[in-house]
Amino acid sequence: MKKGYIFIILTAIFYSTAEVAGRILAQTGSMDPFQVMFIAFLIGAIILCPLATKDIKARKLKIKADDLRYFAICGISAVTISMVLLQFAVTYTKASTAAVLYCLNAVFSIPFAYFMLKEKITKGTLISMVVSLIGAVIILNPSEIVGGLGNPRDIIGMIFALGSAVSWSFYTVYSKKRVDIYGGYVSNFFGFCFGVLALLIILVATGRPIFSGITLQNILVLLYMGIFIKAIGYICYMGAIKETSAITASMVFLIKPALATIFAIIILGESIKINMIIGIICIIAGSYVKMSSGKKENKKLMSSSKTT
What we know:
Pfam families: EamA. The chain is an all-alpha fold. The chain has 15 helices and no strands.
């Protein structure tokens, strides 16, 4: 169990630096968001390849056309759409703001799970959704937007961050359909590959650079994103699930809003307003309620299965 919590802490640290790393690259202005995600996930796919190959052999999997369609939907929704939108978000707004709003993906997954997986919306998940959305509204500060006082770039960045959260929540729910069959490493390797392929097509079709623009200034950040955030971060997350449980491992997204904000303040020197602090507290509280509700549901299912 102690090993599991070490994995949770490591995952939280790596995941909480994602928006900061993206913001550093955005500030250099030498790379396109599509290009950044293409290179980062290409590195991640290369690292996950041997782990996925080992799992395919161990599970005796035979990848068919229908499986590839499933992987393509996962990869495009997670990599090509969600992560690119997040990179656009940190281009327009603060890394801390993007990170906190992105963590709403846990809340947005509730309606997706209801319609796609027929999961019940419990009282706990409903409270979680309402509290977290209140936090998002506080961060967005609609009074400033209506009064024309808000920075237009911040507003655009926030919209991108929310779009990223919605797309990632769709991926999270959709991937649950077959993740038990393939395992996490196989699902994510193929998802990364299809996401990278879609990004390559976009880069070529729109005449964007693929590898040009890489400098000594940004190569280390790109390597960090690909190796530590996309690959090792995910490996640690899988380790956390294996050593504890999926619900306990989701503590990562309970820690991330506060930790990502701290990193943004220390590394980027970002300032934080009182509405941001209140919003973070609401989103953390909402995530906690959702996690607690999930634990209770699991206990009920376990006790009912024992009696039958």
